[in-house]
Automatic annotation (TrEMBL):
SUPFAM superfamilies: Hemopexin-like domain. The lineage of its organism: Eukaryota, Metazoa, Chordata, Craniata, Vertebrata. Keywords: Signal. Hemopexin repeats lie at residues 97-149. InterPro entries: Hemopexin-like_dom_sf, Hemopexin-like_repeat. Residues 1-18 form the signal peptide. This is Warm temperature acclimation-related 65-kDa protein. Gene3D superfamilies: Hemopexin-like domain (2.110.10.10). Residues 22-44 are annotated as: Disordered.
Amino acid sequence: MKLIQMLTLCLALSLSLAAPSHHKEDHVQQDEPQGHQHELHHGANLDRCGGMEFDAIAVNEEGIPYFFKGDHLFKGFHDQAELSNETFPELDEHHHLGHVDAAFRMHSEDSPAHHDHQFFFLDTKVFSYYKHKLEKDYPKDISELFPGI
């Protein structure tokens, strides 16, 4: 099982590094702080095969990969795109539906308090979900949960 997970992670990483960037040099205005510039963020190509760029990829507790692209989410390899807030409504309540910067599922059977939790990073916030429900006291600042980052 760990071999399949590692191979999947390596494949996702190699595909993300091999994909050409579609950002232009003037993508972010110099006098604006780094972060989400919604009006400047590239539009998501909702044809999964039409481009190789994704904002984040994570596997849920059932092993189904979630592909985040813009403000949309693809579940698995065959479903149609849906707005991310259809599955995770709190992302819109707290973030006004931008794109997910990064995501991962904590797989640690030795730590049942964190096992099978999904973490989504949006701007300076981190959201923790367990069984598709936002955990109490989330979202939190990334620096609160991950000091030094």
